[in-house]
Amino acid sequence: MQNNPTSMSSRKPVQKRPTYSIEAVDNALQLLQLLRDGGALRLKDAAAELGVAPSTAHRLLAMLVYRGFAVQDENRRYVPGPAMGVGPAGLSWTRLLRDLAQPHMELLSGQLNETVNLMVRVGTKVRFLSTVEGSNVLRVGDRQGTVMPANRTSGGKAMLAELEPVMIEQLFRSHNAEIGGDTIPDKEFPTFLRELETTRSNGFAANFEGTEEGVSALGMALHNGHGSVVGALSVATPATRFRKVFDAGLVTAMRETCRQLEVDIAANPTD
User: Cα 105–108–114 angle (5° rounding)?
Assistant: First the structure.
């Protein structure tokens, strides 16, 4: 059957700019498009794209951060936030990462009979890319597509632990953190830094009902062939079962899974 050259899509007229457009709204929408299509945006580039002063671009981006459409990473780039409803910025290879991780996650979940998650970090948040659920009647459910604070999840803390202290300050103690609602209070920040030190020493992070009542998890960072963090795996269990799973060799099983997955990641470079 031949294609019809006069299909509805081909006859659809090009959208025209409304005569009543509001410049500030139009600029904000352009920024959203740039974040969506480009994945990452620096302040000076945003100002140049819009043809406005950097101070004007900063105010627009600050409002996008406030509304959850953007977050600022440790390199001071703006990337899509959870309200965008799209994949993490600058990580167009996340589909490949999911494909590489899937068989390893299935094996680990089958070995432990618990739920295994794959996640990546964007600024102060983590996005769950994939979940393989355990078969226990009482189990942690699917988290795919969920966005959570990185400083509260096991995988997020495992990734944050490999950042320099100045980057942690930028993410959770800066003015942008305050705007985005990501600030860690003064009295909690030293404890958080000590937790990251322990995570670096142990090679894993734990989450004891930090994101959801009745759920605990253990997370480990994943690295590419250059040693850079590209994501994390976590095993989530009902809190009442975590100690039993931990004592049965959870850390050893996760380390071996991460090691094997990192071999696959190194063999499939995308940089």
Answer: 100
Do residues 258 and 239 make contact, with C-beta atoms less than 8 angstroms apart?
Answer: no
Amino acid at residue number 52? V
Strand partners of residue 94: none
185-202 in b/e form (b: 16+ CB < 10 A) is: eeeebeebbebbeebeee
Each residue of 91-148: pLDDT tens digit? Answer: 557 778 989 999 999 999 999 999 999 999 988 999 888 999 998 888 998 887 788 9
* The pTM of the whole model exceeds 0.90: no
Q: Which of 126, 193, 128 is nearest to 161 (CA)?
A: 193
Query: What ranges make up the beta strands (E) of 89-228?
Result: 115-122, 125-132, 147-149, 205-208, 215-223
Cα dihedral value 118, 122, 126, 130, nearest 10: -30
- Which residues, at least 6 apart from 114, have a Cβ–Cβ distance to it below 8 Å? 134, 136, 139, 140, 235, 236, 237, 241, 245
CA distances from 172 to 132, 177, 255 (A): 31, 5, 28
Six token digits for residue 216: 């605990």
β-strand partners of 78: 41, 72
Give me the torsion for CA of 221, 223, 229, 232, rounded to 10°: -30
- Token reading at 42: 């620096």
Strands (DSSP E) along the chain, which ranges?
Answer: 70-72, 78-80, 115-122, 125-132, 147-149, 205-208, 215-223, 229-238
Those residues with Cβ within 8 angstroms of residue 73's Cβ, 6 or more apart along the chain or in another chain: 40, 79, 122, 123, 171
